[in-house]
Amino acid sequence: MGKKIRVAIVGASGYTGGELFRLLIRHPSVRVALATSEREAGKPVADSHPFLRGFVAIEFIKADPAAVARSADFAFLALPHGESFKMARLLLKAGLKVVDLSADFRLRDPRAYRRWYDATHGDPDLLHGAVYGLTEFRRKEVARARLVANPGCYPTAALLGLLPFLESGVVAPGSVIVDAKSGVSGAGRTPSAASHYPETTEAFGPYKVGSHRHTPEIAQEAAASLGRRVPVRFVPHLVPMSRGILAAVYFRTRRTADDEALRSVLVRRYGHEPFVRVLPPGRFPNTRDVRGTNLADVQVKVFEGGRDAVVMAAIDNLGKGAAGQAIQNMNVMMGFPETAGLDFPGAVP
Ligand SMILES: NC(=O)c1ccc[n+]([C@@H]2O[C@H](COP(=O)([O-])OP(=O)(O)OC[C@H]3O[C@@H](n4cnc5c(N)ncnc54)[C@H](OP(=O)(O)O)[C@@H]3O)[C@@H](O)[C@H]2O)c1
């Protein structure tokens, strides 16, 4: 085995930071050399993430780009949006490769960032070189990239379902509706009124209908696939569970189709993909089956009449929706086997 690369997790006290740790501990080609937290600096990582006790011996330090650049070859930025663009340039200049888990480098157009994130992008020039890291659709670009924008959790699930049908010309224009449900860890570890236990338990409802920040991201990547604008109607929901996203993407077909014909589109697209499982006919995705993994389970169903269909995708928002996909992208960027550190089934029940 070659020498291990040194990895930094910037924003390591949060949920995606913890998940990066959990997955990287078993990665054969990396060592986590540095982890940052502003609030926990100077304290052992295992105090903040007790599940890592006995596996991680380092302490958090503050997120100083110079210190990160000195101690690491590769950085995961697991920071809130608006923070990553302050660090990325310095790290890239120092020769590190970077996967950013925030939204800072996902939208190609800085005006869209301003509109949806209500802030001016602090380093728009970096957007040109950033690759949107939905690995299954951008593998070649990811392999050459030094900065990868890891996709959002809802967009990962929605696009893994939708893109094969856009690519193959099955979808009637203007017909896409994304209905998706997420577990509460999608909101991050910092408590808020909306993620407070009494607000979320035994409760199920939509939020940010028509205004969720993942809407332009889904539309951007759908348009990139089709070569023209794809209007996206997106309704996110919060469900009382910690992990998991289930996306149901409805669309009208251009021509009459049946289950077998549309399922074969998924099989052709994903038959050789290590992390996307096209379920057998009659089986439907469930978040339980992908919990804690980098897997995505997909299935498609045509409604009576043969003109309306729904493609469904289940992922773990912290896995394929964040840390898992970030590591998959690192593997591709570094020339490691793509499945390194990620090749295991979930924990059920
Ligand atoms: N949760 C998900 O399912 C998910 C999925 C996909 C993408 N993402 C994205 O990934 C990023 C991280 O998400 P998360 O859920 O892990 O969030 P989180 O649980 O809230 O953690 C955020 C991390 O960033 C650090 N941080 C906060 N403000 C900072 C600042 N000004 N300077 C330096 N560090 C700062 C925090 O450290 P301290 O507070 O300890 O100082 C913490 O380690 C976000 O951009 C999120 O949108 C999340």
Please summarize what this structure is.
With 349 residues, this protein is an alpha/beta fold. The protein contains eleven helices and 14 strands.
Written overview of the protein:
- This protein is α/β, with parallel strands linked by helices.
- It folds into two domains: 5-129, Rossmann fold (3-Layer(aba) Sandwich); 153-317, Dihydrodipicolinate Reductase, domain 2, CATH 3.30.360.10.
- 31% of the residues lie in helices and 19% in strands.
- It is built from eleven helices and 14 strands.
- It has helices at 15-24, 45-48, 65-71, 84-93, 110-117, 135-144, 153-167, 197-200, 215-226, 259-270, 319-334; strands spanning 5-10, 30-36, 60-61, 74-77, 97-100, 131-132, 147-149, 177-182, 205-206, 233-238, 245-252, 276-278, 296-302, 308-315.
- Strands 3-2-1-4-5-7-6 form a seven-stranded parallel beta sheet, sandwiched between helices.
- Helix 1 links the parallel strand 1 (5-10) and strand 2 (30-36).
- Helix 6 runs parallel beside helix 11.
- The two termini are 35 Å apart.
- The structure holds NADP nicotinamide-adenine-dinucleotide phosphate.
- Residues 11-17, 37-40, 63, 78-81, 83, 101-102, 152-153, 185-186, 188-190, 317-318, 321-322 line the site of NADP nicotinamide-adenine-dinucleotide phosphate (NAP).
- NADP nicotinamide-adenine-dinucleotide phosphate binds at residues 11-17, 37-40, 63, 78-81, 83, 101-102, 152-153, 185-186, 188-190, 317-318, 321-322.
